[in-house]
Amino acid sequence: TYVVIENCIACKYTDCVEVCPVDCFYEGENMLVIHPDECIDCGVCEPECPADAIRPDTEPDMEKWVEFNRKYSEKWPVIIEKKDPLPGYEERDGEADKMTKYFS
Ligand code: SF4
Ligand code: F3S
User: Fold this and answer.
1) Which atom of ligand 1 sits closest to the CA of residue 1?
2) H-type helices in the chain, by residue range?
């Protein structure tokens, strides 16, 4: 599976949802996640994210992100259409420790 990681938080560009062939992105207030059981590993979303916040779970230390994506994809609604990014997205892109500062 592919997963959404920390740099999506407080940016939420949503370019990713436009390209997913199986509509497996789910939307929270501050970020999106991918449902790991629905993702077909096509990889087309990864280069679409301006924040570089999508990764394959084959990279090191991705277990916690797979569990995170699974947990919230079961709680949040599906998102299939691109929308405006969050206010301040440019300044926050790449900021450290976004989980502590902005995730709620
Ligand atoms: Fe969707 Fe493919 Fe990205 Fe998985 S890898 S979330 S199926 S676009
Ligand atoms: Fe987030 Fe990147 Fe999609 S910032 S909303 S994973 S395009």
Assistant:
1) 4
2) 15-19, 63-73, 89-92, 98-102
